[in-house]
# Entry
Amino acid sequence: MAKRIIAVSHNMKGVLDDDYTLYDDGTLLHEYDKHIYPGGQNLKSEMTVDQLSDKVKQRLFEASSDENKDLVRKILKLE
# Structure
């Protein structure tokens, strides 16, 4: 069974991307730019929920649809 996206949070730090995608199996993808110079853009890394700041968790929760809010809350371990 393919994993399903349940929340996507897009953010910019100036001109640099800082995007997070949460999947229904609890995996997270961070897509970001470190800097504007060659080799510092369009980077990707997989993360765990424990590596996320509270601010990013809140961004993902707010970005989720009403039908996914309970699952996102559970995965992100929000009170």
DSSP finds two helices and five strands in the chain. The first strand starts at residue 5 and ends at 9. The chain has a mean pLDDT of 95.
